[in-house]
Amino acid sequence: MRVFVAGASGVIGRLLLPQLVHAGHEVFGMTRKEEQRPAIEQTGAKAILADVFDREQMVEVLTKIKPDVVIHQLTSLSQGSSAENARIRIEGTRNLVDAAKQAGVQKMIAQSISWAYEPGTTPATEETPLDIYAPMPRNTTINGVVALEEAVKEISEYVVLRYGTLYGPATWYDKAGATAEKVRNQEIKATDGVSSFVHVQDAANAAVLALGWSTGTYNIVDDEPAKGTEWLPVYADALLASRPEIESGSSPWERGASNSKAKHECGWKLEYPTWRTAFPKVLC
To answer: Please, what's the b/e burial string for 253-269 (b: 16 or more CB within 10 A of its CB; e: otherwise)?
Structure first.
């Protein structure tokens, strides 16, 4: 299969490429940065320098390659800007989908998020509505997610992967990451808000397996949604940091998500089933 990966140098993309190559696919990895070319090519993939915001360039690239599948792993997280990340979800996805349609792409797999659901008291399933009436600034993120998912559904076959909060190498939760630094400085308080995590390797594995999954939307999260009062002390201990302060309350949308659909319908298996045992292993 000819597989085009947009966002090939991201935290998921860099794990995804070698798995796709090892599986025997012809892989094309897209990046905007020339300095990322060697890392992409070392995986056995072909590096493609392109900017997803350049519509004509995307049409030219995909029409020339004519991939069977496009995997959309584009984000803009390095500066922590929700507006810029929403832009790539809205404008970038629009350009990528339009180019894919012109190139005759049959399937698209796209990265979304599992904390975009409306408020509730139990872990959200894929049938739970998105939080389209969320106030600002959360609404910026939700609008980006809705635009991305609706655009991707224009492809004849699609898989939307709603990832949990990523942890592991090169993520914000890595021991050298931004979240770890804030926890060491006791800038984050433990609340009753529920989160769902997923190790970045499990996220990449899901994207590879999704080549064979049926059209649909899937929560890609671990087995244990948890309150901040549960997971944050474990995370702090793994960092050898001071225990966080406890603060009562939470945002109504902090409910976590269920992975039942991906596990039971697709047979997805996690290498890291829960943050509880994984944090001490990956942060030591």
So the answer is: bbbbbbbebbeeebebe
β-strand partners of 6: 30, 72
DSSP state of 34: G
How far is 42 from 44, CA to CA, in rounded Å? 5
Domains of the chain from N-terminus onward: 2-166+198-223+257-271 (3.40.50.720)
Angle at 167 between CA 24 and CA 74, to 5 degrees: 55
- Tell me how far the alpha carbon of residue 157 is from its chain's centroid: 19
- Give tens-digit pLDDT for 199-254: 999 999 999 999 999 999 999 999 999 999 999 999 999 999 999 999 999 999 99
Q: What is the pLDDT of residue 81?
A: 77
Question: How many residues does this entry show for the chain?
Answer: 284
pTM (2 d.p.): 0.97
Q: Which residues of 108-122 are buried (b: 16+ CB within 10 A; e: fewer)?
A: bbbbbbbbbbbebee
As a whole number, mean pLDDT of residues 52-75 equals: 98
* Beta strands 46-49 and 165-167, pairing class: unpaired
